[in-house]
Specification:
Layout (H helix, E strand, L loop, with lengths): L1 E3 L4 E5 L21 E6 L3 E3 L2 E3 L4 E5 H6 L6 E4 L5 E8 L4 E7 L2 E10 L2 E8 L5 E7 L7 E8 L5 E6 H5 L10 E2 L9 E9 L5 E9 L10 E5 L13 H6 L6 E5 L9 H5 L7 H16 L8 E6 L1 H11 L8 E5 L18 H4 L6 H4 L6 H4 L9 E6 L8 H11 L8 E6 L10 H19 L10
Parallel strand pairs: 18-19, 18-20, 20-21, 21-22, 22-23
Antiparallel strand pairs: 1-2, 2-3, 3-6, 4-5, 6-7, 8-9, 9-10, 10-11, 12-13, 13-14, 14-15, 16-17, 17-19
Amino acid sequence: MGLMSKMFVLEEWWGAFCVSEEMAFPNLQPFPCDRFQLTLRSDWTVGGQTYVQGSLLSIPIDSLFAGDMSKLEVLFAPSESESLEDTTGTRNYLILSVLEDVKTKLIFWRYKEGAWEQCGIERGLGMESVEPHAVEADVCDDLWVTVSGYTRPTSLFLTAAEELCSGKLPSMTPLKALPSYYKADDIEVQQFFATSLDGTKVPYFQLSKKDMAYDGKNPTLLYGYGGFEISLTPAYSGARGIAWLEHGGVWIDANIRGGGEYGPRWHQAAKKANRNKAYEDFEAVAEDLLRRGVTTRALLGIQGGSNGGLLMGNMLTREKRELFGAIVCQVPLLDMQRYSQLLAGASWMGEYGDPATSDWEEFLKQYSPYHNLSDDKTYPPALFVTSTKDDRVHPGHARKMVAKLLAHPTAKDHTFYYENIEGGHGGAADNKQRAFMQVAQYAFLWKTLSPGRQPEMIP
């Protein structure tokens, strides 16, 4: 259930109401069933106090319905480096999953003797994603905990909230773990920050061989998304390891604005008229890689899909396109004048704007890649990938963009296109198709960025 007004937007969840002893339901949350927990989606000023967007508040139901906001308690308030990702309840604990500079931190609360008590913070999880889930929230404090990282396949742990709170997770043995597909022992995961055009610090993760030389000779693949409050957090990929990292490639995840890495404010900073902030952030990360000697323009490839495909389209057409040696543009939005008329496009106007209004001339036109192609400009090599049966982003976006590039005086010689007839928005219907498409994209990148250096498995 959600509450909305012109002043603020919030979400809330609570325990069951007990109408009578005969109709009693179990209390499924670690606090009395007469309390609301509120997650603010925008700033909220009440009782002379302002609670910032992304905060988690608690209040007795009676006080809320009576309009008495003096009983509001803050369980979490975001900072410049922290945002609330999720909440999990057990019998006696409320566990907050927080991103601190895109790394998981767990905060533990207990409701004891009529008051909230913070009973622990777990920070020792490194650059891995951690997700706790209650086993039986109304019965015990046991948790299923999944852990995944760039070099760790998803692993499943069974533990108690008290043990997790005491910092024992790093030393525990998982119950189950997905198989490892490549040698990760010599892969190093690091985090850096680039400075965007307006001075904003933009984090990014770097995966590379531990003995990599910073001589600008490393084929590098920079990935980004930057939309819909979706966070790029550490996750395992066997294909990335086998086809890229093991052979000396460097992988970069850019946590640009538009995503959810720093909560609602990070997302809202790159919506509609401010969409250019996401593109400036991505360019800033690319420039930082060059500055640090990781790679050169000729060896820097970029990749993104869906909203990330729109990002790729803008990297292709913006003035700094010469930063990139190759572009992989997957299931992209590219015609922002007609996107709202195609498939699910109308549901994204809150993110991008409405092209049927003044939004088109005011800002949408500026980041519509299809409309920004020009015959008198040069463009880097690009591979466009889409699906005939994509039910979210119409394949017409990629088709018409490629048609225009193939009619371009010079881009026609290094523009490539693949359309799978199955697979929906994910681009592939089964593992065989998925493997084929992965190989095709890595083959394009190796042959374009570093010809003759591609792994033997890639034709």
